[in-house]
Amino acid sequence: LSICSRTVEPLEYYRRFLKENCRPDGRELGEFRTTTVNIGKCLCSITTADGSALVKLGNTTVICGVKAELAAPAADSANKGYIVPNVELPSLCAERFRSGPPGEEAQAASQFIADVIENSQMIVKEDLCIANGKLAWVLYCDIICLDYDGNLLDASVFALLAALKNVQLPLVTINEETGLSEVNLKQKNPLIIRKHPVATSFAIFDDTLLIVDPTAEEEDLATGTVTIVTDEEGRLCSVHKPGGSPLTGAKLQDCITRAITRHKEVKKLIDKVIKSITPK
């Protein structure tokens, strides 16, 4: 298979590999790229964050920083805090992105992350309330892609979860005499993570063939994509399918089954890294 054919007829080039149940990078159709995660203090670049993580999925590299601030709850949600996710795709991460206001893909990714947080109940907003109607935590979750090579959503959800697992919030009380908040930086508690959502993305080729963890090239050649989000109980939190080829019920069930297996792999990886950085 010549490099020329990959340039001139990339889809036909891919099809030759797919017929042999493999891909140009040597992976099987259901095989993920090498996945690594670094959490917290090892990320010297964002020491100002209250929690941080860097995830690599093959070449795709995503960093997440969580900043916690205090604010008054909304009038119609007096007992709830806020979670504000934002995905950035700067021009440095790939040629296809431009500097300036967030593009359509970044906005769609931010909305996807917001939906995952809401649907999975990974963080219950009531847990972020400090004093009903008076004070609550706001978690600003900035997810920045440093290197884009496909499957942004899986890497972003993974980085978000890992960063949130790393957050330590100081004890905050309200002085009854002055009505002012008092922050005790010496007494910190980990954020309460209720669920651990993990995303698993697939590209659909020629309307029928499913490949997991697509690269940017594979996403461009695919006739559709689908992302499945599950939690540790195997519960389906989200199915994200932005148009493209339809999926049969059987194919969708195959995706969900693979996503549940992937969840166990990711959770095991996060637990191992957190254990390694936890003081004995």
Automatic annotation (TrEMBL):
Keyword field contains Zinc = no
Keyword field: Acetylation, Cytoplasm, Exosome, Nucleus, RNA-binding, rRNA processing
Q: Where in the cell is it found?
A: Cytoplasm; Nucleus, Nucleolus
Any matching Pfam family: RNase_PH
Protein's GO biological process: exonucleolytic trimming to generate mature 3'-end of 5.8S rRNA from tricistronic rRNA transcript (SSU-rRNA, 5.8S rRNA, LSU-rRNA); nuclear mRNA surveillance; nuclear polyadenylation-dependent rRNA catabolic process; rRNA catabolic process; TRAMP-dependent tRNA surveillance pathway; U1 snRNA 3'-end processing; U4 snRNA 3'-end processing; U5 snRNA 3'-end processing
Q: Where are the transmembrane segments?
A: none
Q: Which family does it belong to?
A: Belongs to the RNase PH family.
**Know the name of this protein?**
Exosome complex component RRP43
